[in-house]
């Protein structure tokens, strides 16, 4: 969760000069993670890694939005 969340925040902060590109890149990263998270939902150990990645994306987005305001 921390790795993905920090990656999203750093990515958003680096692209903060152009918010449209930042949003598009964030959506692209999330779309890239979705298949891996979806496929890992049936495996006991990977289920928790997938859940952590999903929570990290959401937490990173919330933090990035909080940095804007």
TrEMBL record:
Q: Which residues cross the membrane?
A: 20-39, 46-68
Matches recorded under InterPro entries: DUF2537
Task: Output the Pfam families linked to this UniProt entry.
Answer: DUF2537
Q: Which domain of life is it from?
A: Bacteria
- Assigned keywords, A-Z: Membrane, Transmembrane, Transmembrane helix
What name does this protein carry? DUF2537 domain-containing protein
């Amino acid at each position: 969760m921390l790795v993905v969340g920090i990656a999203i925040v750093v990515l958003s902060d680096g692209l903060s000069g152009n918010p449209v590109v930042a949003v598009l890149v964030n959506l692209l990263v999330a779309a890239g993670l979705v298949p891996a998270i979806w496929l890992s939902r049936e495996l006991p150990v990977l289920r928790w890694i997938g859940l952590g990645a999903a929570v990290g994306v959401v937490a990173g987005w919330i933090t990035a939005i909080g940095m804007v305001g």
